[in-house]
Amino acid sequence: MSTEKSVGSGGSGSGSVATPGTARPPAARAWTLAKWLLAFAAAYGLSLLVLTDSLVFLAIPGLIALVTLTATAVLLLLYEPARGNVPYATDGSDRRGVVLHHRRVLLRRYAVILGVVAALVAAVFVTQSDYAVMAAPMAAIAFFAGTAFCGEQMRSVRFAARVLAEYEFTFRAPVEKLNLRGSGKRSLRLGGGEIGAEQPSPKLAAHQPLGKLWPKNIEDGVWFAGDEIFGGVVMVPGSGELMRVQPLAWDELAAERSRAGAERVEKATRAGMARRTL
Asked: Are the C-beta atoms of residues 86 and 15 closer than 8 Å to each other?
């Protein structure tokens, strides 16, 4: 039996909704931060051996570690799930609020990265010290990695904005979790679709702008806006977490898309789903 219900565009929602917290205790977070700082200090110190004559070869693993740690830290910062309260209703009634919130969180985090980059560059030029020289490659990696990762996240948010301007949310349950990869990438299958039990809903590739793991209780159902054979947007009830989705086997559904009516195709085109982007 299909589990579906549609919800209109709504307004700004009726108050904030709490995000189910997965935050670690303060002591655990402090210990994790301390380990990261120790790792950065060790890598930075090792990389400074480039200033010596006899131990310069030992600077290579230090530089590799410094680059890796910097890129990883940027990735973890940008994809850290938002905590606290979300300023929109997560019952499918606020299509605008979910987009605005994700955009603001990403822009704030990117601003933090730019601030760190500026501080590192300033340290090199202000101190004029040989010991500050390794801040330059750290700044470069942080800027380029941050811009690349944030660009991918913002593409998902822009995609969501276009989809939600055309489609209303429909509740779909259950959700089958298929695969989980890095940088917010994963795949899933929605239940309660129109195709029916004999023809299950297509597997969907998904990109989550915020969050490194599966959202809590996603298997119990999500709000879906879009057209399965073209793609769409998923929002998790309760947490309000957003995902951009498109068919995993895009080419295999080409014939079905070609048989879709003109109105259906035009609507998907306006929503930016006429071609594969994920």
From this structure: no
